[in-house]
Amino acid sequence: MDFTFTEEQETIAKLARELFERRAAPDRLTEVEAGENRYDAALWSELAAADLLGTALPEAVGGNGGGFLELGVLLAEVGWSVAPVPAYATLVLGADPIARHGTSEQQRRFLPGVVTGARILSAGLQEPGRSDPMSPSTTARRDGPNWRLDGAKELVPAAQLADTILIPAAMDDGGVGLFLLPADARGVEIRPVATTNREPHADVFLDGAIVYADDRLDGPVGSLHTRALIGLCAIQLGVCERALRIAAEYTTGREQFGRPIGSFQAVQQRMADAFIDVEAIRWTTWHAAWLIARGRPWGEVDRAARIAKFWAAEAGSRVAATAQQVHGGIGIDITYPLHRYFLWAKHNELALGPAPAQLASIGSTYPEGIR
């Protein structure tokens, strides 16, 4: 396997970083965070104008025909700049499953708007008291030719911004369907909630919400969850890389007792450990994304995704703590950029299951006799 980025992938990363460095600088982030939602609509439109929102979408709907690895490259840049845009919600949770499993009509209806930045999507994978999207308590029952949804989803990314939310729901035949729910449909209540990293999230309550018959996706919910895990890992990689870079710059320039604090052995050891952790996140993330790009079996991809998520959670938490601690008191100053990276790393650590949950899932894939 070769994880060397292609010229096209390098171009995506360079273009995204240049744009985020201009439009998501710390001063601009402070302005955005003073608003109702941590969302920069102008930056989202610029991403569309730069043809970045179509990174992993078919050319037939205006995308550039890239794949999941290209999408991961873009998400890593979102994490590097902690950019206030719903890229994970729209591109991973919403557009990706529609592009893979939607009918031609569904793709034509939803995806061109994603490419132009006019449409924001999301998906509700978590429920109160349940962490497995394959066994949702939310139900979908036939109502004539349509579907009636009842239940609740919690911490849905960008739900208050989204036009459409993908909802996994248990059907009468025992299967789990994936439904394209209009956010403004009757019977839908969206309640914004506060989150660790201040990104817009909301709980979604469904009381007889109607989904039309042709607004059901034919794809497996499990693959959406697996790909969502890898998307989070890519974001966490960018977050941790940038946090480590900020810490390295600080410990190189900050002097105490007549020399940079980065020359002290204790600081060097902490930074070296953090570097190794970042590399672990990097290689497990790109390995999982590479398996998807190669079309490997879902079980193999799912295991790799959970290994990557374990490292993104466990090691990501250590990297963020190290970056903060080597800064001393300024590390917790909310006027200093580092605090955002600590909050994002903590959010990514716990989203869709913390490290112990991933270990439990990985362990359950091995037969009892070989444990």
UniProtKB/TrEMBL annotation:
Keywords: FAD, Flavoprotein, Oxidoreductase. One of its GO terms (molecular function) is acyl-CoA dehydrogenase activity. Residues 129-195 form the Acyl-CoA oxidase/dehydrogenase middle domain. Residues 6-117 form the Acyl-CoA dehydrogenase/oxidase N-terminal domain. The keyword Acyltransferase does not apply. SUPFAM superfamilies: Acyl-CoA dehydrogenase C-terminal domain-like, Acyl-CoA dehydrogenase NM domain-like. Gene3D superfamilies: Acyl-CoA dehydrogenase/oxidase, N-terminal domain (1.10.540.10), Butyryl-CoA Dehydrogenase, subunit A, domain 2 (2.40.110.10), Butyryl-CoA Dehydrogenase, subunit A, domain 3 (1.20.140.10). It holds the Pfam family Acyl-CoA_dh_M. Residues 230-363 form the Acyl-CoA dehydrogenase/oxidase C-terminal domain. Its cofactor is FAD. Residues 125-145 are annotated as: Disordered. PANTHER family: ACYL-COA DEHYDROGENASE, ACYL-COA DEHYDROGENASE FADE28. Belongs to the acyl-CoA dehydrogenase family. This is Acyl-CoA dehydrogenase related to the alkylation response protein AidB.
